[in-house]
Design brief:
mainly alpha; extended
């Protein structure tokens, strides 16, 4: 598999979020962004099929549906 390089411009806040997620997950930026891309692809495919993405609390007392435009 060949690899390509890209430049990504982020705001200071976005970079801070990226750094914090990398630290929490123990991943480098490339690995985290690859994981995020795979997750977004999966969500997008499921939504295209008419499915819903719902977050539910452990005790099932709260639910929230993710709406993507």
């Amino acid at each position: 598999m060949s690899k390509r390089t890209m430049t990504l411009n982020l705001t200071e806040k976005e970079m801070q979020v990226l750094d914090e997620l990398c630290a929490r997950k123990g991943l480098n930026k490339t690995a985290l962004l690859r994981q995020a891309l795979r997750l977004y692809q999966t969500v997008d495919q499921r939504l295209e099929l008419g499915e819903k993405l719902i977050f539910e609390s452990d005790d099932r007392s709260a639910k929230a549906e993710l709406v993507v435009l």
